[in-house]
Amino acid sequence: MYPAEVVEATIRSGYAFHTLSAASGEVLGRFDADAMRLVAAPVLILNGEKDGVFRSGEAEFARAHPPARVELIPGARYLANFDDPVAFRDAVRRFARQLGNSA
Length: 103
Known about the structure:
The chain has helices at residues 4-12, 20-30, 33-36, 55-64, 80-83, 85-101, and strands at 44-48, 69-73. The protein is mainly alpha-helical. Helix 4 links the parallel strand 1 (44-48) and strand 2. The termini are far apart. InterPro entries: AB_hydrolase_fold.
């Protein structure tokens, strides 16, 4: 799905693609919208526009934590940071700047 040079560089830096399904299962099985109600910190819900996994619960998570900010990476899928790393980085930076301005 991703160019070989991207996958190889990512694996060399320590990312283990083969663990994605197990890790996702752990996250999805342990953290739900009810848990989001307990989060006191600012939250950025950042998903790929075409992510069929996390987008399915996006609205429920946002309702559980009303101050949460929801952003989508246009055209990106489940690994939005791989599909459009610049848009992903920019979204995180915007959120961080917003936090800095609210202090």
